[in-house]
Amino acid sequence: MLASKVTTKYQTTIPLEVREKLGIQQGDMVAFELENGVVRLRRVVPLDVEYAKALAGTLSEWASENDEEAYRGL
Question: Which of 11, 29, 30, 73 is in the most buried spot, having the most CB atoms within 10 Å?
């Protein structure tokens, strides 16, 4: 088991072994997933902007006047 102390500001150090296993570097984001009293830590993978732009072009089927009217109040 690996452990790390929590500071008065509720900060902690991610142990080296965990950082290496998850590929966490300085400046990376991490996510905490809670499920049934268990916390999972994972490295957040940055959004691939080029992929998102390419995907956006496929969503035009939902860009009609009817869609704008139907979803306007959401």
Answer: 30
First to last CA, the chain: 47
Residue 57: in which H helix or E strand, if any?
none
pLDDT (tens digit, 0 to 9) for every residue of the chain, 74 residues total? 999 999 999 999 999 999 999 999 999 989 999 999 999 999 988 776 677 777 777 777 777 888 888 888 88
> CA 16, CA 32: separation in Å to the nearest integer?
18
Take residue 20 and report the two structure tokens written for it: 């290496």
pTM for this predicted structure: 0.59
Of all helices (H) and strands (E), which one includes residue 2?
A: none
Which residues does 22 contact at the CB level (< 8 Å), separation at least 6?
30, 41, 42, 43
